[in-house]
Amino acid sequence: MTDLQPVRGTRDFYPEELRLRNWLFGIWRETALRFGFEEYDTCVLESEALYIRKAGDEITEQLYSFADKGGRRLALRPELTPSLARMIYQRARQLRFPLKWFAIPQCFRYERMTRGRKREHFQWNMDIVGQAGQIAEIELLSALVTGLEAMGLTSAHVRIHLSDRRLLDAVLDHLDVTADHLRVMIVIDKRDKVTPETLDALLVEQGLAPAQIARLNAIMRMATLAEIKAELGAVPAAVDLENLLGSLARMGYGDWVHFDITVVRGLSYYTGTVFEVRDRGAKLRAIAGGARYLSQDLDAGVQYPAVGFGFGDVVILELLADLKLLPALERQIDFAVIPFSPAEHAKALEIGQALRRAGLRVDGDFSGSNLKRALQRASEIGAARAVLLMPEELARGELVVRDMAARSERRATIAAFLAEPR
Amino acid sequence: MTDLQPVRGTRDFYPEELRLRNWLFGIWRETALRFGFEEYDTCVLESEALYIRKAGDEITEQLYSFADKGGRRLALRPELTPSLARMIYQRARQLRFPLKWFAIPQCFRYERMTRGRKREHFQWNMDIVGQAGQIAEIELLSALVTGLEAMGLTSAHVRIHLSDRRLLDAVLDHLDVTADHLRVMIVIDKRDKVTPETLDALLVEQGLAPAQIARLNAIMRMATLAEIKAELGAVPAAVDLENLLGSLARMGYGDWVHFDITVVRGLSYYTGTVFEVRDRGAKLRAIAGGARYLSQDLDAGVQYPAVGFGFGDVVILELLADLKLLPALERQIDFAVIPFSPAEHAKALEIGQALRRAGLRVDGDFSGSNLKRALQRASEIGAARAVLLMPEELARGELVVRDMAARSERRATIAAFLAEPR
Which residues span the domain enclosing B261? Predict the structure, then answer.
């Protein structure tokens, strides 16, 4: 074995890192359950066809795809939504809508790596499917804020940048852009990733005239919905967005939510509300992103209104580390059972078994190291107490229990100790 | 989207299936923690080189492997042990041995599908690394039995078939087999998968003479260690195995553990104890399998004695279903909040928010369906109580709380209800 590193762009999780991951997943899971969502999952391996789209989504270019031994074209999922759609249409007749489903899948994209960007990440996915009105957005964004709060974050750290694809569509109409609006939007989404000059050049490629580009850039710099409305008039998308912002403010989320016309998101199938969570310093990539979309089975001609978000584990853990908000999570063991010598091994196994049957977490130290080292190890593995099995005490049916934090010891008969292990 | 099915050999987990998976994973995790194991994880995507071996392991032939966009040869992991070894040697100097680590990875093998055999499964992995004596086997097998018991199984349902590769090695020595013993063992491991005639032909291919094969088959039919010892003499492997069986019997696991010379396991790097969990009816594939092995970094020349097992989710769920031991796990919601009409939506959001902040699981019904249907849905989604927001009651600052099981209703002021939601 020559290469001990994980595959470039992927991560190993040593126990201390996995405790942190479990903490984060625990917040995601608990928040989802509190909002009445049900957990589901699909396989990381999917048909490549699910991700081949026409609008130039980055996702298609970044696929990990290959043929299996049977010649099937497969891919590691870059996102979960197409799998969710597949599951829904497979059982559309049996399922009760609206669905509120969540999952924590690992997703893969072959990307150039920078800070907060690996080639895999775990992603908290929350989707409400089959509910058209803004209530779905309000419930989903409430869950998002609740999850952020549970991590110790406030609106002083992060904000939800919110817009609506239909508003940008109205802007492009207003500017008489005749090119395919979706393709133009996918270009506008690159705004943060390329220079202003490159962006202008890409817009020219899409057929926009210099005057259109100048006016578009001016609108994209507008900070308030009022300014946009003054430019476009009270188009339906602006009115809807105003209502949504009002509802969220009444829920107490006014500080959390920030109107931002530049939010587009990169996927071609989004149809309305779009949002992303960003750190206030704008130092990191988007922490989470979501949108309204139509979940549709083209064969059956059925479509469901849906809204959902994805929230990755990589960027948030970097932000929480920067803010010193990561919890200190130590290994926890109730009892370290320490036999003095091999003569006490059988007794140690027996006592360990009795404690575990009582639901306690037990580690047995059969390393043969001396008492001092064994106690040091008990302390290192996070044992609350050590049970010492010494020849003399055992001969009298007794053992020694050491409280590791208090550094105090007591003697007890084995029977009394097992009747009430402490 | 034309194909709604998951990729052949892979599974979707709808919420009712995921609840069952979480139940099983919960038992695995809780058992591991009770035995003092720490959780870790690696990426499902690994370097193909980790799995290329010379001994003709089936695993190499069944790899999902491919080149990424950078030309790296990658594979979806078929098992976790090579990744574990990689992690250990990456940090060998910082880690404290013995390690007791567990994980629940998804593993992939491109296999012909039959009952209990898919192309992916989740596998409970438990490994003790850096502990040479039989205590490691005893602790590991105790954890295995504890996990099986937590699923409701007894030794009347399943048994651990136990042997030692060194014993089979001694048998081959005894028969003067000069061919590579490891390759012969890999052939013997196919015993349950091919006909006796095919097995004999494969042994001939390995260079065994008809007389050797006949004597080998006779030994493989021996049911007790005493018979084997009568044939071979008290070879060290037989003595060790006798000691291990004795220790396990003293722990109360005598009925669970069954000596079985035919157990070999398919991996080339196993060095000692080998075992598998089998259903008593022998109707299913092995439920779990494990072995002693040497975890080694060939570059560094360091090696650690290790023992571990893998326990898949597919076969056990089939067995538990056959035995009607699967729990009935329903969706659980504390409160379904039901606004009478859109006029009560804002109040419903507010009450839902207050209940969720109190840690309760809440679903809001904004479907606009009539009260009867809304209550039916509340019952279907497993709500313990429904909170009805009716115009007249709300005007008086009151709401109606319905206990879904008792079919009883009570009125309460909003303030009183939120002070003590029940």
Answer: 15-322
Give me the number of domains chain B comprises: 2
Asked whether residue B373 is domain-assigned, the answer is yes
Assess whether A36 and A156 both reside in one domain. Answer: yes
pTM of the model: 0.95
Helix axes A165-174, A210-220, angle to 10 degrees: 140
How far apart CA B281 and CA B153 sit, in angstroms, is 14
Q: CB-based contact (8 Å) between B35 and chain A?
A: yes
Q: Is B1 on the interface with A (CB under 8 A)?
A: yes
Distance (Å, rounded) from C-alpha B111 to C-alpha A72?
A: 14
Q: Is residue B9 part of a domain?
A: no
**Residues A278, A352 within the same domain:** no
- Asked whether residue A163 falls in the same domain as residue A288, the answer is yes
Q: Is there a contact between B251 and A349 if contact means CB atoms under 8 Å apart?
A: yes
Distance CA B282, CA B277 (A): 10
**A8, part of any domain:** no
Q: By the CB < 8 Å criterion, does A10 face chain B?
A: yes
Same-domain pairing of A36 and A140:
yes
DSSP string, A291-308: EEEEEEETTTTEEEEEEE
At residue B46, φ and ψ (nearest 5 deg) are -135, 170
Bridge partner list, B126: B102, B309
Mark whether A287 and A188 lie in a shared domain: yes
Check A4 against B90: CB less than 8 A apart. Answer: yes
Specify the CATH number for the domain of residue A403.
3.40.50.800
Mutation for B interface: A21, A44, A389, most B CBs within 10 A: A44
Check which CATH number belongs to the domain holding B116 and give it. Answer: 3.30.930.10
Residue that has been written with the tokens 């939506």 in this structure? B345
Query: In this structure, are A42 and A130 located in the same domain?
Result: yes
A89 touching B (Cβ < 8 Å):
yes
Residues A152 and A232 both lie in one domain? yes
Please state the ipTM of this predicted complex: 0.95
Nearest CA-CA distance, residue B186 and chain A, Å: 22
Q: Is B52 on the interface with A (CB under 8 A)?
A: no
Per-residue pLDDT of chain A (422 residues; tens, 9 = 90+): 458 899 999 999 999 999 999 999 999 999 999 999 999 999 999 999 999 876 566 777 899 999 998 899 999 999 999 999 999 999 988 998 999 999 999 999 998 877 778 999 999 999 999 998 899 999 999 999 999 999 999 999 999 999 999 999 999 999 999 999 999 998 999 888 899 999 999 999 999 999 999 999 999 999 999 999 999 998 999 999 999 999 999 999 999 999 999 999 888 888 899 999 999 988 888 999 999 998 876 566 778 999 999 999 999 999 999 999 999 999 999 999 999 999 999 999 999 999 999 999 999 999 988 999 999 999 999 999 999 999 999 999 999 999 999 999 999 999 999 999 99
3-state secondary structure of B82: helix
Q: Are residues B156 and B231 in the same domain?
A: yes
Name the residue in chain A with its Cα closest to that of B3.
A86
